[in-house]
Amino acid sequence: MSQFHIAIDGPAGSGKSTISALVAENLQFIHIDTGAMYRAVTLAAIEKNIDLADESAYVFLETTDIKYVNDAIYLDGNDVSNLIRSDQVTSNVSQVSAHPYVRHKMVDIQRNAAKGEKVVMDGRDIGTVVLPNADVKIFLTADVLERAKRRYGEYLRKGRIERMDDVIEEIRVRDHKDSTRKESPLRKADDAIVLDTTYLTIDEVVMKIIDIVKKEHGYGL
Ligand code: CDP
Q1: Residue nearest (by alpha carbon) to ligand 1 atom 18
Q2: What does the pLDDT look like over 135-169, one tens digit per residue?
Q3: For ligand 1, mutation pick of 43, 177, 178 (most atoms within 8 Å of CB)
Q4: For atom 4 of ligand 1, which residue has the closest CA?
Q5: Cα distance between residue 74 and residue 52, in whole Å
Q6: CATH number for the domain including 205?
Q7: Close Cβ partners of 67 (under 8 Å, ≥ 6 residues apart)
Q8: N or C: which end of the chain has fewer CB within 10 A?
Q9: Residue 118 has pLDDT above 60, yes or no
Q10: DSSP code, position 51
Q11: Distance 47 CA to ligand 1 centre (A)
Q12: Model confidence at 193: pLDDT above 80
């Protein structure tokens, strides 16, 4: 089989990126974290000091190179994997990713990267817009408190001290913005399989997805 597409969507903190990376590693697929791409655009826009609300100011994307390779994100050839996780990027990314022009640019890059490849792609609109014909579509959910706890733990591991209430608020605000925007909002595709990860470990979710791929599609059997 030359091309096989697995789309994994879900809200902030549902574990998408970690789980997608592990599923890809297990199946020896490419992994593309589309959230990292929107974060890279946000970082570039902040560095260029443009008005983030002005869609026409994003024309700089015509001459900007954004690539996701081997679980690292590159902006014009520079690895910005750490810089894209800053507070400033996190609090502005939903505004940036709501611009249709920005989305069209990123969706083009994402579709080209997936063409002819075995790919696990994670994001908000992969099963609905980017890869509507994906072979397997998964929608990950988890209770908002559990998602906030996970994010809080990630911050702690990186030495960042945050108030739990602020983390819950950050997740709620981003969920709201991402699911109410006009252009391709966060939405479960009609044919996606929902996995509630609230009471599951990362490994349990990874195994469930691999089971779905193998049982329903015989991949690698
Ligand atoms: O923080 P988390 O890992 O949950 O989010 P992310 O996957 O890094 O995505 C960051 C932001 O990018 C989201 O909050 C969305 O605003 C935007 N995004 C999007 O609009 N469409 C995608 N396919 C992926 C991310």
Answers
A1: 35
A2: 999 999 999 999 999 999 988 998 888 899 999 99
A3: 178
A4: 12
A5: 21
A6: 3.40.50.300
A7: 73, 74, 109
A8: C
A9: yes
A10: -
A11: 19
A12: yes
Query: DSSP alpha helices (H): ranges in the chain?
Result: 16-27, 34-47, 87-96, 100-114, 144-157, 164-180, 202-217
Does the C-beta of 128 come closer than 6 Å to ligand 1?
A: no
Task: Please tell me whether residue 138 adopts helix, strand or coil conformation.
Answer: strand
Contact status, residue 5 vs residue 135, Cβ threshold 8 Å: yes
Query: What number does the ligand 1 atom closest to the CA of 42 have?
Result: 12
Domain membership flag for residue 216? no
Q: Which two tokens stand for residue 144?
A: 């908002």
Structure tokens at 112: 């080209």
Rounded Cα distance between 29 and 131, Å, is 16
194 C-alpha vs ligand 1 centroid, how far in Å?
18
CA angle 206, 207, 209 (to 5 degrees): 65
pLDDT in tens, 61-89: 999 999 999 899 999 999 999 999 998 99
Contact 148, 198 (CB under 8 A): no
Structural domain range at position 91: 4-210
- Residue 31's SS3 state is strand
Q: How far, in Å, CA of 120 to CA of 134, rounded?
A: 10
Q: Let me know if residue 189 belongs to a domain.
A: yes
Structural domain count, the chain = 1
